[in-house]
Design a protein that fits this description.
Blueprint: E1 5-14, H1 18-29, E2 34-38, E3 51-52, H2 54-61, H3 66-72, E4 80-85, E5 92-98, H4 101-106, H5 109-114, E6 126-127, H6 130-142, E7 147-151, E8 153-160, E9 165-171, E10 177-187, H7 194-199, E11 203-218, E12 233-236, E13 243-247, E14 253-259, H8 272-280, E15 287-301, E16 305-308, E17 316-322, E18 328-329, H9 337-357, H10 362-395, H11 406-422, H12 429-433, E19 492-496, H13 503-512, E20 516-520, H14 525-530, E21 534-537, E22 543-547, H15 553-563
Parallel strand pairs: 1-2, 1-10, 2-7, 4-12, 10-17, 19-20
Antiparallel strand pairs: 3-6, 4-5, 8-9, 9-10, 11-14, 11-15, 12-13, 13-14, 15-18, 16-17, 19-21, 21-22
Helix pairs in contact: 1-6, 1-9, 9-10, 10-11, 13-15
């Protein structure tokens, strides 16, 4: 590197997609300076990801941007239909209905009775294209004073040292190069991550699965040509057109993912007009905006943090972290990939901020991989299994499914039954909300059995490592009413039931310098939901410790040191 060092910044973020922007927003919101570099100068055109799960929306609620997300999502009055048809103008085989944004916001009694998912979170699924989400995250991050962003800039190379990283950057338009010295670097540069490759980190798992090609197109006529109505997903089960239409804005922007059950077929040979016409069942006017060739994956990076040369087998912990697609690649079935990356960014963000603020120990950074990697394995396996089930039913669908005959009717009835079985995967609240940090080095276990982990449903629990449960705390039970989740998000929170003060724990946390808020745990349903009279909840809303009796000084000190990542550190 022959460029002069231009800037010294605590955190360098490589990549400005949803994960990089979330990490920048989280750091800036917490007052930690960071620099984000992104080669693109505009949001992604092709909406690769199109779904925000309930947990991501809960995390964005802390920032106050969920209304902006709703405004850019599907129209609020539209129920989230998922239809399964031979072709869009052919026979409908099965349909799933989910609550609309309006149902989610207003929570009328009939919606609460129909969809139990609305009791587990203030949010449900939110259909929004990545191209519409990125500007909202960009705007929030840009409004945080500690955040600097350089679009049109790419990472050329980096050198890692025991106490810093030096990165060489290049301005794409001019070729001008500069150097940045940083204490920490986060690779949010996507599935083909140049940073991951430079570190020599390989991926584990099933790896690349079947190929797909996605067409992003505009059509004002799309909704007028079929009788399905406005939904969010339209599956096509004609044997020559297995795939999925997705509503991007519910008006004129759509995508079609053409699925290839033959893993050896070349997606580049597909003609867009022919593929879209077959899936629709008739010609229709459209303007093609983009084409992407890609694969389903079930891949998770072997390690999520760089290693420095040392006597130890795996080397000393380094200063470069992987997040989002740089750390894991998913099948899109379940809409979990981007949401897992958003969770990575929040977890890494509050921990880096804690270390930079001086109260977080090295154990916090060590816990990033220990906590997030198992979640990525869990979620990617769930997504791959979902893909396998869809592929299986599609592969078992015969050409006779389109016949207007008694035989065709029998085939459609048979395939509809298989679709009903397969479609249970779309009840995915447990996948998005039910993950917990098992065996984390910064969580205090209490020896109780782990609650069930069911992708289809949430078992609310304060078992250490779990997301603190949601319940509305006042008369207002619409989305803008206060929920227990509003208690958490920036500082540590100690919940104390009447008669269960924990002064020793308050003092021990004060000694670490960790920001702490004490909150009375109200008696009644919320106290029952929270299961214990004393709970310590982390800045990310996960339970770090719970107890039935106030800890004494020694126990309190051990709790505080462990949950802040300082256990085993020598105090100067």
């Amino acid at each position: 590197m022959d460029s002069d060092t231009e800037v010294d910044v605590p955190v360098l973020i490589v990549g400005g997609g949803p994960v990089g922007l979330t990490l920048a927003g989280e750091l800036g919101w917490r007052g930690t300076p960071c620099l984000l570099v992104e080669e693109r100068t505009a949001p992604t055109l092709h909406p690769k990801a199109t779904l925000l799960g309930a947990r991501s929306m809960e995390l964005f609620r802390r920032w106050g941007i969920t209304d902006a997300i709703f405004d850019a999502a599907l129209p609020p009055e539209v129920n989230y239909f998922i239809t399964f048809s031979t072709r869009l103008t052919g026979h409908e085989l099965y349909r799933i209905t989910s609550p609309s944004i309006r149902d989610t916001v207003e929570r009328p009694p009939e919606a609460l009775k129909r969809w139990r998912e609305l009791t587990w979170s203030p949010f449900y699924k939110t259909q929004i294209g990545q191209q519409a989400l990125e500007p909202i995250l960009l705007d929030f991050a840009a409004r945080q004073a500690p955040v600097e962003m350089r679009h049109g800039t790419r990472l050329v190379s980096f050198e890692e040292h025991p106490d810093h990283v030096v990165a060489e950057l290049e301005e794409v338009a001019t070729g001008r190069r500069s150097r940045v010295r940083t204490r920490w670097m986060a690779a949010c540069d996507g599935g083909g991550s140049a940073v991951r490759r430079a570190l020599g980190i390989r991926m584990n798992g099933r790896g690349r699965m079947r190929p797909n090609v996605s067409f992003y197109f505009e059509s004002e006529e799309f909704l007028k040509l079929h009788a399905r109505g406005l939904g969010n997903l339209y599956f096509i089960f004609a044997p020559d057109s297995f795939g999925l239409f997705t509503a991007i804005d519910g008006k004129r922007r759509w995508t079609y993912q053409f699925y290839f059950l033959d893993p050896d077929r070349a997606t580049e040979q597909v003609d867009p007009e022919e593929a879209l016409t077959r899936a629709m069942g008739r010609p229709f006017p459209f303007r093609l905006e983009g084409v992407q060739h890609w694969h389903h994956h079930q891949s998770v990076a072997r390690q999520w943090r760089s290693r420095l040369p040392a006597a130890a087998v795996d080397g000393a912990p380094g200063r470069v972290f992987l997040a989002g697609d740089a750390a894991h690649l998913f099948a899109p079935t379940g809409g979990v990939g981007m949401n897992t990356g958003i969770g990575d960014a929040v977890d890494l963000g509050w921990k880096l901020a804690a270390v930079e603020a001086g109260w977080g120990g090295e154990g916090l950074l060590a816990s990033y991989e220990a906590e997030r990697k198992p979640v990525a394995v869990r979620n990617s396996v769930i997504s791959a299994n979902n893909s396998d089930k869809i592929d299986m039913v599609m592969d078992e669908t015969p050409p006779e499914i389109e016949e207007d005959s008694p035989r065709g009717a029998r085939v459609r009835t048979e395939i509809a039954g298989k679709i009903r079985w397969m479609a249970r995967q779309f009840n995915s609240a447990g996948t998005h909300l039910g993950y917990r940090y098992v065996d984390s080095p910064v969580i205090m276990p209490d020896g109780t059995p782990e609650p069930p982990d069911d992708p289809a449903q949430v078992v609310p629990s304060t078992w250490p490592g779990s997301r603190a449960p949601h319940a509305f705390t006042g008369r207002e039970t619409g989305l803008h009413g206060e929920t227990t989740l509003d208690w958490f998000g920036r500082d540590w929170v100690l919940l104390e039931a009447p008669g269960h003060d924990a002064p020793a724990l308050v003092g021990a946390l004060a000694e670490t310098g960790a920001p702490l808020v004490r909150r009375a745990l109200p008696p009644g349903p919320v106290a029952d939901l929270y299961e214990r009279p004393l709970l310590l909840v982390r800045p990310d809303g996960h339970v770090a410790w719970r107890g039935t009796e106030p800890p004494g000084p020694d126990e309190a000190r051990a709790i505080a040191e462990r949950v802040t990542g300082r256990a085993g550190e020598v105090t100067p």
